[in-house]
Design goal:
The complex is a heterodimer of chains A (191) and B (182). With 191 residues, chain A is mostly helical. Chain A is built from nine helices and no strands. The longest helix of chain B has 44 residues, at 59-102. Chain B has helices at residues 4-17, 22-36, 42-54, 59-102, 106-133, 142-154, 158-181. In chain B, helix 1 (4-17) packs across helix 2 and helix 3 (42-54) packs across helix 4. Chain B has 182 residues and is mostly helical. Chain B has seven helices and no strands. Helix content of chain B is 83%, strand content 0%. The chains are: A mainly alpha (191), B mainly alpha (182). At the A-B interface, helix 1, helix 2, helix 3, helix 4 and helix 5 of A face helix 1, helix 2, helix 3, helix 4 and helix 5 of B.
């Protein structure tokens, strides 16, 4: 039953996400392209690109879109896929929300708790690695083109480096993504 | 009395007009909730930000859940969350449908060929900023590097890394407690 599988998968993703949307990307990627193979790497990268260009939290956008595409790929009609995407979205937020409400209600001194502090110290280190792994997995032939030294490959490396530097310099990601997209249309459309 | 629809509307604006995820929403939330509506003191807001970052989940949704609950209980929290995500969900679903229809169009294909490496760069960039704010030095940099390699090369599920981190954190907390007691 795909609805149950989607719910259970995104329930896990939600409760194990520490460190925001980028860390969630690594978890979603592992579950949907490796464990379940609901999506190809290429589809996942496209979903990620769209999630970064549209309003809203990246985790919500990616969960909603992945839920839709996974159900659609399994051969169900579009309306079933819409229901599936809403189930994925609900699943990804439900446990963290319950935990947040309980914490605000009961633990006045949550931040100063010894165990919370030492767990956070370790997580701050490992989450950096988890986010780095998401980026590393995405550096593949689907995103960067083959063979090496083709126009697609060279242009992808250049686009990657420009966007990387400008993003560190706090350029608006929407303009960066739109710029990269139009650069692609010009380069690959004309040559 | 703050109404549910006021909460919904404030988070609706924040969710609909921020692109770039949770971290981009924090300054907007501060302006709307602390300065304009004055529903929370700045200290309460900052506490909520720290809490939202410490607990699992999506940062923006955690913020909506915590702020909504502080102001109007469980129903307030539901109103804030739904307000925060309703437009993004509608928007992304429309795009999912459109992408299915047009993905074999040449211009769309070229657009995505350009955008894919940029999407990867946007994931890679925060790694260095986070590494700096986590104060990772030469002594501790092997931990994130090992985690990245385990997931990337050996296909370890990131969930196991998280579970191991929590276990290690609890163990060090317990050991520190013992040494403090002595």
């Amino acid at each position: 039953m795909i609805f149950f599988e989607i719910f259970w998968t995104f329930l896990k993703i939600g409760i194990f996400t520490f460190g925001g949307g980028a860390a969630m990307v690594a978890l979603i990627q592992n579950e949907v392209t490796v464990s379940h193979q609901w999506l190809t790497q290429k589809e996942f990268t496209d979903i990620l690109a769209v999630s970064q260009m549209t309003p809203g939290p990246i985790g919500i956008n990616t969960a909603t879109y992945t839920g839709y595409t996974a159900i659609f790929n399994a051969g169900h009609p579009a309306w079933v896929a819409v229901v599936g995407s809403l189930i994925a979205t609900l699943a990804v937020i439900i446990l963290p929300v319950i935990l947040m409400i309980l914490t605000v209600k009961m633990l006045q001194r949550f931040q100063t708790n010894r165990y919370v502090q030492s767990v956070m110290t370790v997580l701050r280190l490992t989450v950096v690695g988890i986010i780095a792994s998401a980026a590393l997995v995405l550096v593949n032939a689907d995103s960067f083109g083959v063979p090496a030294l083709s126009l697609h490959f060279v242009a992808s490396i250049v686009i990657f480096m420009i966007v990387f530097v400008l993003s560190i310099k706090k350029f608006n990601p929407v303009y960066l993504m739109l710029g990269a997209g139009f650069a692609g249309m010009l380069l690959y459309g004309w040559f | 009395m703050i109404k549910y629809c006021d909460l919904f509307w404030s988070f609706f604006k924040i969710g609909t007009f921020t692109i770039g995820g949770g971290y981009a929403m924090i300054p907007l939330m501060e302006r709307e909730l602390v300065d304009r509506q004055q529903w929370l003191s700045r200290q309460d807001f900052l506490d909520q930000v720290a809490l939202s970052q410490s607990l699992p989940g999506i940062l923006a949704v955690n913020m909506a859940a915590g702020v909504g609950y502080r102001i109007r209980g469980v129903r307030g929290s539901v109103a804030a969350i739904v307000g925060n995500i309703i437009m993004p969900v509608i928007f992304i679903l429309s795009l999912a449908v459109l992408y299915r229809l047009f993905r074999h169009n040449a211009a769309v294909e070229h657009f995505f060929m350009g955008v894919r490496p940029a999407a990867v760069a946007l994931i890679a960039a925060p790694v260095f900023k986070l590494a700096k704010s986590a104060q990772i030095g030469w002594m501790s940099c092997w931990i994130p590097i090992l985690c990245a390699l385990l997931i990337w090369l050996w296909g370890v599920n990131p969930i196991f890394i998280i579970l191991a981190s929590v276990a290690l954190g609890l163990a060090t907390g317990w050991l520190n407690k013992k040494t403090d007691a002595q």
